[in-house]
Amino acid sequence: MDGVQTVVGVGTGPVSEAELVAVARGGAAVRIDPDAAAAIAASRALVEALADDVEPHYGISTGFGALANRHIPPDRRTDLQRSLIRSHAAGSGDPVEPEVVRAMMLFRLSTLATGRTGIRPATAELYAGLLTAGITPLVREYGSLGCSGDLAPLAQVALTLMGEGEVRDAHGRLRPAADALAAAGLSPVTLAEKEGLALINGTDGMLGMLVLALHDLDGLLRVADLTAAMSVEALHGTPKVFAAHLQALRPHPGQAASAANLVRLLEGSAIVASHSGPGCTLVQDAYSLRCTPQVHGAVRDTIAHARRVAAVERASAVDNPVVTLDGRVESNGNFHGAPVAYVLDFLAIAVADLASISERRTDRALDVHRSNGLRPFLADDPGVDSGHMIAQYTAAGIVSELKRLAVPASVDSIPSSAMQEDHVSMGWAAARKLRRSVDGLRRVLAVELLTAARALDQRGLPPAAGTAAVRDRLREAGVEGPGPDRYLAPELETAVAVIADGSALAAAESVIGALD
């Protein structure tokens, strides 16, 4: 990696959301703090004290899963750990995104740092070394049932610690793990008792995808308020329904925040003023305009709930068995992904509905019978030009897919490991579909941004300061104002880009201050 790396310290406490994003997306280096190093060493000493015990201890001197009743002699335990990782690295499908792999690795390292897993200090240090060197194991998409940990994905990472498998180096080149380790000055390890389980028994993959999604949704929620305000303004809607005293009658916190954003975004609009006098015949707006705070607010509150679950999970030591503070090694069920899986599915439902109301506002702006005076499909010469007709098709197609992705994964369970693992969470699948949902939401909001900006221009009056700034940012990015039909796909991608890079939101906030 080029330049000076940010360094994130991993201690015995939880990794923050900001630290996770810095490592997963920003390539930050990782170091193990002294408190964590001491805790790791202490728990390893306890494991080694039990290694020669005549009593069997799961993961130390026994097989795994349905084979847990088989005692493994000391001279075969290195083979046991190596075989565990090789056999469990059974993923299939396309490679998982590097940011997901790095997020998963950081959360697994965070659990190792709690001193409850029995990992050796050298193994933990190598894990941190991979992240710092930008070495990203090649993890395949399929292989986790979200119970007993994200087994196949985490095993593919553990394989790298052994110098096996494939990785991408800091320059994104695919190469054998042994070569990449050597080039980075890192040496593979031979796993000892308990270490294989410690490396793979966690919800880290699904948790990493949850935290990344929460980070993205924070920005997209404010963008949704922004594009909604542009649509309300362009459609001659009224901001009066967003007044604080009306929201206080139903005091959901997310609803109040969304309504306050809409009021600020629409303040001072000449377009709103043009139809707000006593001569206005409009009685009340359609639900997709009037109920924006109720829907956007419910999504906000859903995200707040998911963030609370993620915070608990980030502060947890998820492994089986765990090393207790009084020196015992105990089996448990904390690896079950249900808490994370449920909120991943819950978020997919909320995302689908947020996109759905956005698409309805877009469609209303294009329908001459419902747009309060805008041209059909916002076309320059309707009939000759089709305007944004098919852009709405794009949004509708995405929303339809988001509804399918909103079907919960966590309600399914397929038994595994000869019925030893007879109920699983499918949390990894829930996380994978949520990532696709977040991308779809971004694209639906981009269609609304593109359409609402064109509609504001067709009104011919100055928009509010906040919405005008966003419209102007879109124009600066290369999307021209109203005119004859032109190749629309690149303009849609530009709208996606100004949402993804934060510049659309920054434009509004530069003139009206930070949105909630």
TrEMBL record:
Name the NCBIfam families on file: hutH, PRK09367.1
Q: In which pathway does it act?
A: Amino-acid degradation; L-histidine degradation into L-glutamate; N-formimidoyl-L-glutamate from L-histidine: step 1/3
Per its record, what are the GO molecular function terms? Answer: histidine ammonia-lyase activity
Which reaction equations make up its catalytic activity? L-histidine = trans-urocanate + NH4(+)
What EC number is given for this enzyme?
Answer: 4.3.1.3
Per the record, the major location class is cytoplasm
Give a Gene Ontology cellular component term annotated to this protein: cytoplasm
What is the top-level taxon of the source organism? Bacteria
Q: Supply the alphabetized keyword list.
A: Histidine metabolism, Lyase
Q: Where in the cell is it found?
A: Cytoplasm
- What protein family is recorded? Belongs to the PAL/histidase family.
What Gene Ontology terms for biological process does this UniProt record contain? L-histidine catabolic process to glutamate and formamide; L-histidine catabolic process to glutamate and formate
Name this polypeptide is given: Histidine ammonia-lyase
Q: Which organism is it from?
A: Microlunatus kandeliicorticis
